[in-house]
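RECORD TYPE: protein structure
NAME: GTP pyrophosphokinase
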Amino acid sequence: MEKEWTRFLLPYEQAVSELTAKFLALKEQYVITKKHVPIEFVIGRVKPVASILEKMERRHIAWGELAQGMEDIAGVRIMCQFVADIYQLVEVMRQRKDMHIIEERDYIANKKASGYRSYHVIVEYPVEMLTGRKTVLAEIQIRTLAMNFWATIEHSLNYKYQGVFPQELKQRLQGAAEAAFRLDQEMSAIREEIKEAQEAFSYYRHNEKKK
Ligand code: 0O2
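PREDICTED:
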């Protein structure tokens, strides 16, 4: 059985490492433009077998339906500074020819009941295997650093409470999610102000030079 899992997960491993490398390469391209870089860092993982089995049971997914029925076996997470960066990256992804978007879930505009916010993009991604081309599904989660901070803490608490949080903790987490989102909004507002100040400064310098 272990060998079968290894064989099954191999294209997903490849998809995660290729997609991670591609988003890092995209970041480098932004870096050399000397403009704002919308990517902070990128991580990827293949869902552990125990989590796949748990989700198969919870969602009643049969072994034969696994490749189409579970979209997040291959997962890549991109962290950004600002909410606007997230939408910029989604737009970049929509233009790319090497990954085909089949679904987008905007959990920023429509946060989850838990308080979770992130933008999920499900893509079909082709990997070249020894046996030929295999197209797998992958889930790209794009979120701000503040959203990631919240989700990381909530995720680890989830393990402890198995998803059944005491009422007070649940409310605190929902409150913390709102605080994280307010932080994102504040940072975006500050960023706009900095941009305006920089534009005004360069306009002033330009006019000074003309004198
Ligand atoms: P891991 O370890 O991150 O892979 P489901 O998986 O059934 O809950 P669905 O509809 O398949 O949900 O996909 P969804 O909700 O678009 O994405 C699921 C993934 O999003 C989760 O994967 C988490 O990574 C993240 N996520 C969604 N909701 C929450 C939440 O309330 N809190 C946190 N911290 N993360 C969330 P996994 O498999 O749970 O875990």
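COMMENT: Residues 82 and 144 are 6 Å apart (CA to CA).
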